Structure formats: C-alpha cells, structure tokens
Amino acid sequence: MLLQLLLLLLLLLLLLLLLLLLLLLLLLLLLLLLLLLLLLLLLLLLLLLLLLLLLLLLLLLLLLLLLLLLLLLLLLLLLLLLLLLLLLLLLLLLLLLPLLLLLLLLLLLLLLLHLLLLLLLLLLLLLLLLLLLLLLLLLLLLLLLLLLLLLLLLLLLLLLLLLLLLLLLLLLLLLLLLLLLLLLLLLLLLLLLLLLLLLLLLLLLFLLLLLLLL
C-alpha cells in the first residue's frame, strides 16, 4: 500500500511537471511569434527608410538642377548686359571720334572758344571712363556669381554625402538589430528542443510508473 501511494504521488508530480513544461513551451512559442513580428516590423522600417532616403536624394537633385538653371539665367542676363554696354561704348566711340576731330579743328581755328572745347573734351573723357568702370563692375559681378555657383554646388555635395552617411548608419543599426533578433530566435529554439526532450523523458517515466502500478 505504501508503495502504491508513493507511486501515485510520483505520478502526480510527473503530471505537474508535464503541465509546467507544456506551459513553458507555450510561452516560448509566444516569444518566438513576438520576435518574428518584430523582425517583420524592422524589415518594414528598413524599406520605409530606404524609400525616404531615395525621395530625399531626388529632391536634392531637383533643387540642384533648379539652382543651376537660375544661375545660368543670371549669367546669360549679365552677358547680355555686357554686350549691350560694349555696343554702346562702340557707338559712343564711333560718334565721338568725329566730334573729337571737329573739336580739335575748332580748337585750332577758334582760339577764343578754347576753354569751352577743353571742358567738352574733359566731359567726353569722363563718360568714357564711366563706361569702362561699368564694364569692370559687370565683370566683377560675373566672377562673384560664378564663385557663388561653385559654393552652392559644394554645399549640395556635402549635404548629399551627409545624407548618405546617415543612411548607412541607419542601415547598419537595423542590421545589428536583425542579427540580435536572429540570435534570440536561435536560443529560443534550442530551449524548445531541450524542453521537448524533458517532456519525452517525463513521459517515459510516467509510463514506467504506470507499468509498475499495474
């Protein structure tokens, strides 16, 4: 009788152990499912980040193109202004050369109007100097615009490089997270296998005890 009671107690303990192992298996399965869901979410986040980065790169390229077009239009306008000023200078020179010759003749012929003619000559020379100064200023503006264009291009290239570096860092972080999750999955699978083996052993013990009772 005592042996039978002990065997019954052992059977009850085995049953409890089996139930506990089953609960542990269920919990591990739930953890595995949660990890799989996390992996899927991380993959979706990776895809979204890649799409956002591609969109940012496209927007930056469009901005670059727009800036280049604007700068080219400004350069064309300045070139047109320079050409117009050169044409005006040439016309003034063509008009002033005969006038200068006439003034020289009048100076030779009319000594009384000497001072007036000198003043006119000085005014003409001043006009020529002003036109030359305007041409120089326009050339300086062209050079400044070219320098600004180069600086803008350099800044945009730096921004693109920074964005690419950020993208690479994000991708590396996500890959590390994926690797960690995969390692956790492997560990959980190993635990599941061990628990299954324990279940099998307990079942065998349970069967042996039943046979002994019988």
From TrEMBL:
The keyword Transmembrane applies. Keywords: Membrane, Transmembrane, Transmembrane helix. The chain crosses the membrane at residues 38-62, 69-93, 130-153, 159-183, 190-213. This is Uncharacterized protein. It comes from Dreissena polymorpha (Zebra mussel).
